[in-house]
């Protein structure tokens, strides 16, 4: 167990999460900001990349489990990223469409933001958001983040304008 919030438990992803991961990563609507659904091989490399991150960094995107049912409903966590020419820590979130708009992303991401400050000693936590992704921007705003810059991300052969949101470690 990595962390607990009011309704959610966050833990590392395992092979047992593959069906729930497919429900997220192979859904065209969920993956709009990522230029569409992943195929099976992309799902498997996504999971092995997370395992590499756990091993190398000690953190990555984690499985988000609804405590009352034990169901895996999303992914949220922290990853190392290169944003606006800096090596930074980012909070990321992707949830199963069946569970959107109940505050789960904000709740999980707030837990991860605080974990970055307290357990990892980060001075700033970032979120990179495609400029068309209103839901994600709303989560970043709910986390207390503000826009620090803009950049173009090249992904799956597409130039994607992004906003770089961030929040600074609160004063003690
Ligand atoms: C972004 C995402 C994680 C949000 O998950 P969620 O659990 O629905 O978010 P929350 O319920 O915590 O909502 C956070 C805020 O965003 C708003 N919001 C959620 N979905 C929205 C949408 N589609 N359009 C506009 N606002 C939206 C909520 O109303 C809430 O604001 P409020 O507190 O003012 O009401 C989810 O839409 C998702 O998985 N999207 C696909 C993956 C993705 O794009 N991830 C982000 C990559 S940067």
Automatic annotation (TrEMBL):
Domain N-acetyltransferase as annotated: residue spans: 8-170
PROSITE patterns: GNAT
Top-level taxon of the source organism: Bacteria
Protein name: GNAT family N-acetyltransferase
Source species of the chain: Microbacterium commune
Species lineage: Bacteria, Bacillati, Actinomycetota, Actinomycetes, Micrococcales
């Amino acid at each position: 167990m990595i962390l607990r919030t009011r309704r959610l438990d966050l833990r590392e992803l395992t092979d047992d999460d593959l069906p729930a991961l497919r429900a997220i990563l192979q859904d065209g609507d969920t993956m709009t900001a990522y230029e569409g659904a992943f195929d099976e091989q992309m799902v498997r490399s996504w999971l092995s990349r997370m395992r590499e991150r756990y091993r190398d960094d000690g953190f990555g995107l984690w499985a988000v489990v609804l405590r009352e049912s034990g169901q895996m409903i999303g992914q949220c966590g922290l990853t190392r990223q290169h944003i606006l020419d800096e090596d930074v820590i980012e909070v990321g979130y992707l949830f199963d469409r069946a569970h959107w708009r109940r505050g789960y992303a904000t709740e999980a991401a707030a837990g991860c933001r605080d974990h970055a400050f307290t357990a990892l000693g980060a001075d700033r936590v970032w979120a990179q958001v495609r400029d068309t992704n209103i839901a994600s921007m709303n989560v970043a705003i709910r986390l207390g983040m503000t826009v620090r810059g803009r950049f173009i991300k090249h992904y799956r052969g597409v130039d994607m304008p992004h906003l770089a949101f961030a929040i600074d470690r609160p004063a003690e």
